[in-house]
Amino acid sequence: MSQLHLVKLSCTKCKRINYWTTRNKKQVENKLAFNKFCKWCRKATPHKETKK
Predict the structure, then answer these.
(1) pLDDT at residue 18 is higher than 70
(2) What pTM value is reported for the model?
């Protein structure tokens, strides 16, 4: 069975869910965080993994 799971990435400024991605929970234990473009803030902001 695959250990890849879908996770949501939400903007840390406006708290909206903008992106979905996958991660391997056995290899990546920390929460994901990326600098992504938020179309509501209209700039690149940190996006962090949120609960489902």
Answers:
(1) yes
(2) 0.82
